[in-house]
Structures are given as C-alpha cells and as structure tokens.
Design a protein that fits this description.
Elements lengths: L2 E6 L3 H12 L4 E6 L7 H5 L6 H4 L1 H9 L4 E4 L10 H7 L2 E4 L5 E2 L15 H8 L16 E5 L3 H11 L2 H4 L6 H10 L3 E5 L11 H6 L6 E5 L13 H18 L8 E6 L2 E7 L6 E10 L2 E12 L2 E4 L3 E2 L21 E3 L2 E3 L2 H4 L8 H19 L7 H10 L7 H13 L13 H8 L24
Helix pairs in contact: 1-4, 1-13, 5-14, 6-7
Bound molecules: NADP nicotinamide-adenine-dinucleotide phosphate.
Length: 458
C-alpha cells in the first residue's frame, strides 16, 4: 500500500516536502493540512507586501497542490480538537511544517506596554493575516523604533516609510496603508545591539532602503568605519557587502526628504518606558568582545510612540509533541522527532534563512520517510479515509484547494489599480464567499465547526 503522509502547515516548508516526496518516486499519498483557509504560510503572511516577486513561488506550490496524489485540507487546526495523536493513528508519516509564528520576547521591562508589537504581530497585521486584523497598532506618533538588525526589521521599517505610490503595486491591505499614512511617522530607528559589521541584513534588502521616494537613510560614518570580526567566510562576505552599502548610505544628502530611516548600532535595549503607552526606549551602549556583548555603562534614550521588536521568532507548543521552550522549536535529530513524526523548516531549524532554505529540509525529510518506510512498516495506515472520518466525528468540515482558488480569484478580481490582489483579512468573509447563501454564515468570526463551513466544502 502507498505511504500515507500528513503535512501539517501549507507554507514553503510543507510544500517543498510535498514536492520532494512526489519527486522521490515513492508510492505516496500526501495530505497538506492547514489551519487557515488560505495556503502558502509565510509567502502570503510573512514576505513583505511590496516583495511581490518573492511571492511568485506560490505558483510553483500551486502546481504541487494540484497533483492527483496531493490533497489540501484548509481550516483545520491540529491541536486540541484534532490532535497529533489522531494524525499519527491515521498516517504512516506526519510532518510538522508549522513554522515559527510567535515572537521571541525581549525580556526587558515595558515590553507589554501598548505601542509595543513584536514583528510576528506587526508583520501579520500589515500582511492581512486574519489573526492580527484587529491589532490596531499605535501609529499616531512621529517616531518608531524597530529593534533588530535582520531582514524583518528592514521589511517593517520600509513598510512604515514607503509612499502610497511605492506601495501601489503591493498587496498591502488598503486599511493598513491608510492607517500608516494617517499616523504620520517621520522617523524610524533601526537598532542593532552589535556593530554594523555584525548586522544580519542581506545586501539586496539593505540596498533597497537607499532608494525610497520619501525617506532618506541616516548612517553615522563612525559606525561603519571598522570591519569587526563577523566569523565565517560567508558571514564576512555578507558583512563586507553590508558595510559597503552602509558607507554609501552615510554619504547620502540629508534634509531633502520628509522621512528619515536612522541606523543605530551597538545599542542593547534595557527598558521600554511609558506610563499608559510607550514613549521611549532606553538602551545601553554595548561593545562586542570575543563575540559577546559587553555593556559600557553609557545609556541612550530614544523617544518614540511605537516599538517593533524584530528579534526573531519561535514555534508554539503542540499537545503531544516534545517542545524546547528555550529554542522555541521541536527537538529532533535532523528533523526526526519520533518514529513516523518529522519536522521541517523553521519548526526544525528555528527561524533562519530565506524561502528557498526550506527546500533541502523537504528533500531530507522525503529521504527519511523513504528510509524509515521499510524499517517501520509504512503503508499499513489508511491515511486520508481515516482522517476524513476523524474530521466527521469531530464535526469539522475542511476546505479544499478549489475553495482557496475561489478565494484567490475573488481577491484578484477585487484588486484596484496596479495592486495584484485585495486580500480577505477576515475568516468570516472568506467563508461567506464560499457559501452559496451568505446569510447562512454566522456574522461572528468563523469557527471550525461544520455549521460554519459552507456546503461547497468537502
Ligand atoms: P534575524 O535575521 O535572526 O535577525 C534578528 C535580529 O534581532 C539580529 O540582529 C539579532 O541580533 C537581534 N536580536 C535578537 N535578540 C535581541 C535582543 N534581545 N535585543 C536586541 N536585538 C536582538 O531574524 P529576522 O529578521 O526575524 O529574520 C528571520 C529570517 O528570515 C532570517 O533568516 C531573514 O534573513 C529571513 N528573512 C528574509 C527576508 C528576505 O529575504 N527578503 C525577509 C524577511 C526575513 P544578534 O545578531 O546580536 O543576535
């Protein structure tokens, strides 16, 4: 019998695994199970809305989803109602491709003040993720602080300062664009706790912020004078490229554009200050000694009304799966968590790398499943019919890939001007679209129960 595989999570790691399984030539049946009605994970809700070319990889994933051996079960959360044990009882192999959807905490006082939003929340909000549509961030401020020197920090800063014209070809939800523009942010500070040579920006993304229509970049030449000691050859090359770009940015004319992006280095956040909401971040000036951060006892305060810590992500605990809270992932041996249970992508490695970095994980996982099949007697479990029976027994009706394609078509049809789509940000609206009679859909946000899912679904 065919090897039955359930992939939990329809993001890049999940799709690359499905693709590798298909390419392996093994006799497999693959079900991709997704909490949202919409597939593609970070492609839809993590990649910045103005990076549409990166999102094109979704077309490739779509081809995988349309293969006869692959099925998509949208709007099904694996956790309390449908459990990992249910999946493991039904499928020979269960692959966790759930990403890392939570923010790593900063662990400093004031982190919970209104006006502070981790990048998982903020990026989810500006990408129209249904979980964050009601975030309503404090944008009514002149200055925002973005903590972190990775690409997410650059994404957040760019989205805050780009003009409406620059965002016109993006899929930024209109209400998000209006809220950002109405807020009036003029100064965005990107703060690194290490020096410029240690920043984790990639050069294409860093160069991009030097070409913004309404925003100039401010870099202190003293911060980019020395090269530091960034480690491996690869890091050194990236560091040299970044330093060259930052040195160029440091020479740009000042005072010619209405907004400013300030790069500040060697500042470690020690407290977020404010009474009712944030009004400043306090930093200690730090040095890197033998790779470690050392405080200098000198403190710097940056006044602001919005703080976005973009300091990395972590996965969430799922009942029935060992979880390492310190690293924020599911411990595994190169992706093998337990017999028949695997992890790929950020759930396996933690939150690092670009979209394509997930591809090798998928290939490794497909090879592991093939190798384990003989030893563990894969092919015995019924797979899809047992899972469908489980969903019926729990009163859950899932959505199909065709349902997603109807949502997709409706979003594209609703786009205005050069925008590629107008995203649904509300689950209830997606379900209403799928219902033949929208009056049958409850007004409240969708639940996963059979009553809330239209008859058009499976
Ligand atoms: P990241 O690249 O790991 O950067 C995290 C940053 O946060 C680092 O500068 C880190 O500094 C800093 N940090 C961590 N803890 C901190 C703390 N307690 N206080 C102050 N700073 C702290 O993570 P990311 O930006 O979230 O990106 C995740 C991955 O997605 C990366 O691989 C990134 O390249 C990728 N990505 C790619 C794109 C793209 O290609 N366009 C876009 C977005 C994201 P230290 O170095 O000192 O630890």
């Amino acid at each position: 019998m065919a090897i039955s595989v359930a992939i939990v999570g329809a993001g890049p790691a999940g799709f690359y695994t499905a693709e590798a399984l298909l390419e392996s030539g093994a006799d497999v049946r693959i079900d991709i199970i997704e909490r949202l009605p919409t597939p593609f994970g970070l492609i839809r809700a993590g990649v910045a809305p103005d990076h549409q070319s990166t999102k094109q990889v979704a077309r490739r994933f779509e081809q995988t989803a349309l293969q006869a051996l692959v099925d998509f079960f949208g709007n099904v959360e694996i956790g309390e109602v449908v459990t990992i044990e249910d999946l493991r009882a039904s499928y020979d192999a269960v692959v966790l491709a759930v990403g890392a959807g939570l923010d790593r905490p900063l662990g400093i006082p004031g982190e919970l003040l209104p006006g502070v939003y981790g990048s998982a929340l903020f990026v989810g909000w500006y990408n129209g993720h249904p979980d964050f549509r009601t975030l309503s961030p404090h944008l009514d401020t002149r200055a925002a602080v973005v903590i972190g020197n990775g690409n997410v920090a650059l994404d957040v800063a760019r989205v805050l300062v780009k003009s409406a014209d620059e965002m016109a070809t993006s899929d930024l939800p209109e209400e998000v664009g209006r809220a950002i523009r109405a807020g009036g942010i003029e100064d965005v500070y990107i703060i690194g706790r290490r020096g410029a040579a240690d920043a984790r920006f990639t050069s294409v993304e860093l160069r991009e912020v030097g070409n913004l229509a309404e925003c100039e970049t401010l870099v202190d030449p003293d911060d980019v004078a020395s090269s530091g000691d960034p480690g491996s050859d690869r890091q050194r090359r990236q560091s040299e490229r970044n330093l060259a770009i930052l040195r160029g940015l440091a020479t740009f004319p000042r005072g010619v554009k209405p907004k400013r992006l300030h790069f500040r280095f060697n500042l470690t956040p020690v407290a977020i200050e404010g009474r009712r909401s944030v009004d400043a971040v306090r930093f200690e000036r730090t040095r890197v000694v033998d790779g470690r951060l050392v405080g200098t006892g000198e403190f710097v305060r940056i006044a602001c009304g919005l703080v976005i810590p973009a300091v990395g992500y972590r996965s969430f605990a799922i009942p029935g799966i060992p979880f390492d809270p310190a690293r924020g992932l599911y411990p595994s041996t190169d992706g093998r968590i337990a017999p028949g249970l695997y992890a790929v992508g950020w759930a396996k490695r933690g939150p690092s790398g670009v979209i394509g970095s997930n591809r090798p994980d998928g290939e490794i996982c497909a090879a592991q499943i093939a190798a384990d099949a003989a030893v563990q007697g894969f092919g015995e479990k019924p797979g899809r019919p047992a899972f469908e029976a489980c969903l019926r027994a729990r009163g859950i009706r899932s959505l199909t890939f065709d349902d997603w394609r109807r949502i997709d078509a409706a979003e594209i049809a609703a786009a205005t001007g050069p925008a590629p789509r107008r995203k649904f940000t509300d689950l209830a609206e997606m379900l209403a679209l799928l219902a033949e009679d929208t009056r049958r859909i409850p007004a409240a946000a969708a639940s996963m129960t059979a009553e809330a899912i239209p008859e058009t679904a499976r």
